[in-house]
Amino acid sequence: MESGDPDQSVTVKNGYLELETYCIGWGADLNYAEIVQHPYNPNNFLPLFRSSWERRKPVTN
Question: Mind listing the pLDDT tens digit for each residue in 28-48?
Fold first, then answer.
């Protein structure tokens, strides 16, 4: 699939399409040193369906 030709055959293995690692991606490199400085916090939540959600006010129950 290096050519990007959609008619080119792909391999199906265990019900999944098997793709080469060089043919797909975000087109960006991740900075893992920066990522670890901002760990996941399950309390971070953006309430998109509340009024004034765009102001990014903290969620309080």
Answer: 788 899 999 989 888 877 778
Q: List, in sequence order, every residue forming a beta bridge with 16; answer none if it has no partner.
A: 13
In order, the DSSP letters of the chain are -TT--TTS--EEETTEEE--TTS-S-SS---HHHHTTS---TT----TTSTTGGG-PPP--
Q: Do 12 and 18 meet the contact criterion of CB atoms below 8 Å apart?
A: yes
Q: What are the beta bridge partners of residue 17?
A: 12
Rounded Cα gap, residues 48 and 56, in angstroms: 10
Quote the CA–CA distance of 2 and 52 in Å, as a whole number. 46
pTM of the model: 0.35
| Rounded distance between C-alpha atoms, residue 12 and residue 8, angstroms | 13
